[in-house]
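Hey, resending since the last one bounced:
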Amino acid sequence: MKGILKCSNCGKYTMKETCSCGSKAITPKPGKFSPQDKYAEYRRKAKIDDFKKRELI
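The structure tokens again:
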């Protein structure tokens, strides 16, 4: 048993691999934190670029 999942399309929570709307359900939990994260810098840059694209900063 995987636990609770969240639909990637409608945002509903379910225990099944696919939602009632037909979309795939994914885990809503964030990834584990690691101080030795090699890709954190790239993730932060992508997030800032996304905010600039949406004119939030």
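The chain has one helix and three strands.

Sorry for the duplicate.
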